[in-house]
Amino acid sequence: MFRRGGFHPLPLLLLLGLALLAGCETGAPAGRSSATGAAPRLETLPVPEAPTLQSARDTGITNRVQAPAPVTTAPAVVLHEPEVGTTGPMWIDWQTWHAEHATRRVELVPGSRRAVWEGTPLYLGFEPRLLDHRVEVLRRDVDKNFAPLLDPQPVIPALRRIVIDPGHGGTNSGTRSITGSQFEKQLTLDWALRLGALLRARGWEVSLTRTNDAGMDLPGRVEVADHAEAALFISLHFNGAFPNTEVHGLETYCLTPKGLPSTVTRDFADDASQEWPNNAFDAPNLRLAMRIHRSLIQRTGATDRGVRRARFMGVLRGQRRPAVLIEGGFLSNPAEATQINTPAYRQRLAEAVAAALEEPQQASSKSDSTPF
Question: How far from 304 is each of 89, 220, 280, CA to CA, in Å?
């Protein structure tokens, strides 16, 4: 645990399905993860066959309706004044953008910040909207959450030098497992040591922010990465939602881009005008997070709580390299905690991250053309 602290009349050619939002998003206490801006009802966006893009799911879309291919000639329209310092429309006609730029399957839900990219949940900054029978997405979300995932450049840097950060340590024990006496700090260290060994065997130069039960503040962890001149930074954590013992699943975080609200704030101020050093890596952050998260879900079978954004995580903000933080499951959930407490499962977590850091990608069931 990283502790911080209706229906519209539509033309016949457009079919939108309604579904109730269900799953582990509901009821997460304030001290832990809870996605903001979720809508209680879902309307499914028509999805073209090719090229394809869709988006949505929280444990939740139960009814999706296929629709005809989108019109590709209608231009995006200016519905409001453009954002300061930008040109072009503030809101983008989704079907037009999709037909012109997208090569992936995405699902969008008007009124919900939750999207799904190639089967992986991804949280947007703002809810897509339905206006005059058109689905529209904020331009900032298109630029920061969709466009980076179309980048064909390799995700993994040529310089194979990484810093792995086992969360907590020393007097900061993190969450205690509901099933026994183990603490988050012990479990993250074991995970990190296993991951480090796997990466070294594959030619990576690996540093850890700690190799024993030593305490370290957040700036110190950033300094380790700076000193190592690391090309990547990964922080490992386990989640907790006490007194809620039902919420479960795996999450991967990267820093919120400037101009967007965070998915999760955990009662911290969330100033969208702030820009941190790590925001220089907004695009590679997202692509790395998607890649690692997909590998983890595929190899563990854990409930998929998606790729999320947070601005309050100091261990990410100061990084001058692509950086992500992984919450590897909930120690407050008895079934998940039982798994996490076993060395075999922690080895599986380590193997999943290591596989995601290989080129060509071995962590996805998608084709080799998948850029993340």
Answer: 33, 31, 27
What tokens does 267 get?
Answer: 């009662």
What does the block give as tokens for 66? 């296929």
Q: Based on the structure, what is the number of domains in the chain?
A: 2
Q: How far apart are CA 263 and CA 176, in angstroms?
A: 25
Pull the structure tokens for residue 45.
């966006």
| Helix/strand/coil for 3 | coil
Question: Which residue matches tokens 């519209």?
Answer: 8
Q: DSSP for 35-74?
A: -SS--SEEEPPP--SSS------SS--------PPPPSSS
Note down the domain range covering 108.
18-150
pLDDT number for residue 360: 56
Instruction: Give first-to-last CA distance, the chain, whole Å.
Output: 26
> Whole-prediction pTM value?
0.76
Is residue 68 domain-shared with residue 175, that is, in the same domain?
no
Please write the tens of the pLDDT for every residue from 106-157: 999 999 999 999 999 999 999 999 999 999 999 999 999 999 999 988 899 9
Q: Are 233 and 192 in contact (CB under 8 A)?
A: no
Name the residue type at position 262.
S
Tell me how many helices (H) and strands (E) the chain has: 8, 14
Q: Is the domain of 254 the same as that of 331?
A: yes
- CB distance 133 to 352 below 8 Å: no
Cα–Cα dist 306/297, whole Å: 9
Residue 236, SS3 per DSSP: strand
Residue with tokens 């992500």: 324
Give the position of tokens 């024993």.
212
Ranges of the chain whose pLDDT falls below 70: 1-88, 102, 359-372
DSSP β-bridge partners for residue 91: 138
Do 221 and 335 fall within a single domain? yes
